Every structure is written in C-alpha cells, then in structure tokens.
Amino acid sequence: TEVTEKLEEVVIIWIKQIRQVLVESEQMRREADDIGPSAELEHWKTRMSSFSSLLDEIKSSRVKKILSILQAARSKTLKQWKELDGNITIAANEAKDNVRYLYTLDKYFGPLAKASPVTMMEHVPSLMNTVCMIYCTSPYYNTSERMTSLLLKITNQMINTCKTYLCEG
Asked: Domain Dynein heavy chain tail, which positions (predicted)?
C-alpha cells in the first residue's frame, strides 16, 4: 500500500500538470491585430507538436507500468487519469487535423503576402473555395469561432499586402 500511495501521488501530480496544459491550450490567444493566416498554421503546428510529445510520454512504458500497478491495486485515481488521457488524445487529434486542413491553404499564403492587389484577387476565389471545403469537412475547424479567426487573418494579410503595394507605388 505504501508503494501504491507513492505512485498515486505521482499520478496526481501528472494529472494536475496535464490539466494545466489543457487549460492553457484552451485560453484565448493574444495576437497582433494585423497577424496573417500563416500564424494560424504555425499555432496549430506548435500545438500539434506539444500534444504529440505529451501523448508519447503518456504512452511510454514507464507510465504504463505505473498505471498497471495502480490498476492492480484498484486505485481511484485511474478514473481521472483515463478522462485526461482521452482529452489529450482529442486535443492531439484536433491539432493534427487542423494542421492537415490548414496546409491546404498554405499555397495561397505566399501569393496573398507578395502579390499586387490585382494578382492577389486572382487567388481569392480558389482560396475561398478551400476555406469552404475546410468548413464543410473538418470535424474540428468548422465552428464560427475558428472560421472567423481564419477569415480575419486572411483579411489582415490582404490589407497588409495592399498597404505595402500602396507605399511602394
């Protein structure tokens, strides 16, 4: 029982740390007002990396051994652990899925940032079709909050490109 208690203490510390990571990942991002859409992709790539690393750690043999000992001891902490494990898996899958969908927009980010307003407009119809496809097919990115954020960043990039064009002309 002494070993079980020590292991439960360790798992409780892990639970607190994982909850903190999940809470921080859901907090509002503070971003500059004129940030472009490539920042959205970078955000999700960073999040994907963090949650993938966390998942790798959770699935490690060391953690599995501790959990199997606690399971044999019928520890009550395992219920909380399993719930958090599921939440981490969902967050990792969301980040991976969002990166995959946002990469389909990546080919537009360069022309959006470097083109003249006239040539930039040639890319807008296919860009918007791709955004629509993401909205219709992505299980995670199809909320008005996520779409509003993405469209705002696309608009910011278009405005910044036009400002640059006007200042250079």
From this structure: 5-167
